[in-house]
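Quick one, probably user error.
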């Protein structure tokens, strides 16, 4: 028996090397002379041969494509039961259906069939394949050294199969693997040398339909460990099926392990729920993209969907991933889709981040062990030969958890964080970050809650709250935030709002802590309740939550071109809290990005002040109001004297018209004028106050009646989906109880879609049609009660 060839770490039992037997008494193998590929000469390419800065060596294009081994196919009305067989030198590269063991179009005969306790090694095309087969058991098999996806569900119609307790390792991509440092990738097209273009991202397990039992498996190596691309339709012979693969939820995804994956791509996860595979209608050829895809159009027209799981009645549900151990990954779990819940996940020795997730996602009972003793010793500290991806490991440039910049809802509960930049041996220069917020091109909403965090060791303070990404001249720096619902993440032991105090560095990608803005500071003067952390990687305020919460809005002023992406790098106005004199110093800049987020509770005092550099807005559209129903958000805007107003809320606004295209949608609600700020503050959110003498317009923004589907507001007739206040006089619902995305007793408010708007129209003269000609006040209104000690209290 030969000694092991490589070092294997198992000293502290965090994770171990897999041991498997490949030999069986029954053996089926291809001929040793005729089966192996012959196109293997010069199969390794080097940096310089290809425009590739991430890696020093990589597989050359057009190699290892001629493998021609045997294949076994069980099909149709047959029942196939295969156990304890060794498959060696099997499969024929890029020849559809020529796989080592293939269950082909068997339908429900799969319930009487199985592949158990087999081994597949030195395979030239896949390992064990279920195609058009339901209920098949694939269990306790070992696969090693395979070209293309290995344990493989082919077309998206395969459901209720049992993929359990298999080990698949050392899987090789066909063509060049996607080698990216970003979330976007290029489309790959079917060809004779790449029959399924998803094989550029070859992984041990390939899952086209989540409605299967996937449990107890181990994946080692590959572009990712478990790859689950989005399929909008079934592909291949059964393309006429009404099954919509990307809407099928997880049946079971439990107890799986993956490690040593994601080498080729920064975001290649041990679990990779992402990518997009579709047939081109014109010729039925496959097109694959392994990236995020929300920016890409389908080759058949329209946008590419992300996975959106539904139950049998069409109600939205969440994919569930439970009891996973993910080690030595670039990213432990990447989920580019709309809804997911991750429970009891152990993450160890990740290179970049623990999770990278889109949509409505919860993470519960997760253990993040950033560097075990193995991880601390994998690479020499001084090595000139390391590639850029390897150097990211060497530099310990990891993030315990990395949030997202916009459009998400994430709840993290019961995290245990270990060896993630300990204060006793700190990693400096912005590396080894714990809670990290990206500073991208978009401004953040309220989208993150953290609850019940435990640190095994005290983390290095400056890395506790951090930023990443950082495009130049992006005003999102002023609105970065999250809610530490019990103060455990920030180690304050009290509910805490975390908000940026940093400043943008003009012309540079970064943040400075100079002249901290006051937007997220809820106290004023010497009042206690906020801690300033200017030396955190992300300079921020940590403020007592008390009755405060976080709201977000979209504000569109005048011509929509003002809010084109070209103006995201331009300051167009300021926002401040009432009572904060000197708007230029104390106000937070607003850019062409219409998004704004900030702390509030104006039940008794205070409000937000909005001011544009062009002047008072002649027309202002407010959308996507993310506000809890039990909080009050007041807005003040300065206008020239003698201005008159029309303010309406509209449930179905489109192309400048408030529509009534369904019988149960109220066309609009026109606000009435009242005589005091307090009347507005205590209203249902359908009145305004115009202080003509001082030149301030006041109105309240409320949580809008929103059905669970997220489509309808301000109902005319009773609907049990709402459970909101009903006004017999107007026939309208609202304000009502805000729907939340919730888990473990906490929730993030939903907001209505952009079809619902609050529209403010001012009757003033305007040269450009966007702003009133006459000057308006440039400072916020004073607090009604006097000098502020908090943003809502005197």
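Nope, works fine. Designed sequence:
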């Amino acid at each position: 028996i030969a000694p092991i060839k490589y070092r294997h770490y198992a000293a502290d039992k965090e994770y171990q090397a897999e041991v498997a037997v490949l030999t069986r008494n029954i053996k089926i193998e291809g001929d040793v002379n005729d089966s192996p590929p012959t196109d293997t000469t010069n199969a390794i390419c080097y940096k310089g041969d290809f425009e590739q800065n991430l890696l020093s060596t990589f597989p050359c294009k057009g190699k290892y494509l001629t493998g021609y081994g045997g294949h076994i196919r069980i099909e149709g009305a047959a029942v196939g039961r295969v156990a304890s067989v060794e498959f060696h030198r099997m499969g024929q590269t890029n020849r559809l259906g020529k796989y080592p063991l293939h269950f082909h179009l068997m339908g429900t005969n799969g319930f009487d069939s199985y592949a158990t306790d087999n081994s597949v090694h030195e395979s030239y095309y896949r390992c064990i394949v279920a195609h058009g087969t339901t209920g098949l058991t694939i269990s306790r098999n070992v696969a090693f050294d395979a070209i293309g996806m290995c344990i493989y569900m082919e077309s998206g119609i395969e459901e209720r199969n049992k993929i359990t307790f298999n080990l698949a390792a050392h899987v090789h991509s066909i063509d060049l693997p996607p080698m990216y440092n970003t979330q976007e990738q290029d489309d790959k097209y079917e060809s004779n040398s790449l029959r399924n273009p998803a094989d550029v991202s070859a992984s041990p397990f390939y899952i086209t339909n989540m409605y299967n039992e996937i449990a107890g498996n181990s994946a080692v190596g590959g572009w990712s460990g478990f790859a689950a691309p989005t399929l909008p339709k079934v592909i291949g012979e059964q393309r006429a099926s009404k099954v919509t693969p990307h809407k099928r939820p997880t049946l079971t995804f439990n107890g799986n392990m993956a490690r040593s994956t994601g080498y080729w791509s920064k975001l290649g996860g041990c679990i990779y729920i992402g990518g997009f595979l579709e047939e081109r209608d014109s010729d039925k050829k496959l097109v694959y993209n392994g990236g995020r895809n929300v920016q890409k159009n389908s080759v058949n027209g329209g946008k590419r969907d992300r996975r959106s799981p539904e139950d049998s009645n069409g109600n939205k549900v969440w994919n569930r991933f439970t009891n996973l151990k993910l080690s030595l990954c670039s990213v432990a779990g990447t989920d580019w889709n709309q809804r997911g819940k991750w429970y009891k996940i152990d993450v160890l020795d990740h290179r970049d981040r623990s999770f990278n997730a889109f949509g409505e996602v919860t993470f519960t009972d997760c253990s993040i062990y950033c560097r075990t003793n193995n991880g601390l010793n994998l690479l020499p500290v001084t090595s000139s030969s390391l590639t850029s991806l390897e150097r990211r490991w060497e530099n310990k440039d990891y993030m315990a958890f990395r949030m997202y910049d916009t459009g998400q809802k994430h709840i993290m509960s019961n995290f245990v964080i270990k060896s993630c930049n300990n204060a006793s041996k700190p990693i400096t220069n912005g590396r080894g970050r714990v809670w990290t917020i990206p500073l991208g091109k978009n401004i953040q909403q309220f989208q993150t809650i953290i609850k019940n965090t435990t640190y095994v060791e005290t983390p290095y303070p400056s890395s506790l709250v951090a930023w990443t990404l950082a495009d130049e001249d992006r005003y999102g720096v002023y609105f970065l935030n999250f809610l530490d619902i019990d103060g455990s993440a920030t180690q304050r032991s009290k509910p805490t709002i975390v908000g940026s105090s940093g400043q943008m560095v003009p012309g540079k990608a970064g943040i400075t802590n100079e002249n901290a803005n006051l937007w997220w500071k809820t106290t004023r003067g010497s009042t206690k309740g906020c801690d300033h952390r200017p030396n955190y990687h992300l300079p921020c305020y940590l403020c007592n939550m008390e009755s405060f919460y976080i709201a977000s809005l979209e504000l569109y002023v005048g011509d929509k071109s003002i809010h084109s992406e070209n103006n995201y790098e331009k300051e167009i106005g300021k926002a401040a809290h009432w009572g904060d004199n000197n708007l230029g110093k104390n106000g937070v800049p607003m850019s062409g990005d219409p998004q704004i987020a900030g702390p509030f509770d104006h039940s008794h005092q205070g409000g937000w002040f909005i001011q544009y550099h062009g002047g008072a807005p002649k027309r202002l559209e407010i959308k996507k109001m993310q506000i809890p129903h039990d909080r009050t958000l007041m807005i003040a805007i300065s206008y020239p004297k003698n201005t008159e107003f029309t303010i309406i809320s509209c449930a179905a606004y489109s192309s400048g018209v408030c529509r009534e295209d369904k019988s149960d949608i109220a066309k609009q609600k026109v606000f009435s004028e009242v005589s005091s700020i307090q009347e507005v503050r205590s209203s249902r959110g359908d009145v305004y106050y115009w202080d003509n003498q001082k030149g301030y317009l006041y109105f309240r923004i409320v949580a809008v009646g929103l059905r669970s589907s997220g489509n309808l507001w301000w109902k005319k007739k009773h609907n049990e989906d709402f459970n909101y206040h009903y006004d017999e006089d107007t026939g309208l619902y609202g304000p009502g109880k805000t729907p939340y995305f919730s888990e473990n007793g906490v929730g993030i408010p939903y907001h209505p879609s952009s079809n619902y708007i609050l529209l403010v129209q001012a009757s003033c003269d305007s040269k450009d049609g966007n702003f009133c000609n006459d000057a308006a006040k440039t400072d916020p209104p004073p607090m009604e009660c006097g000098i502020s000690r908090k943003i809502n209290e005197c």
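The first strand starts at residue 26 and ends at 29.
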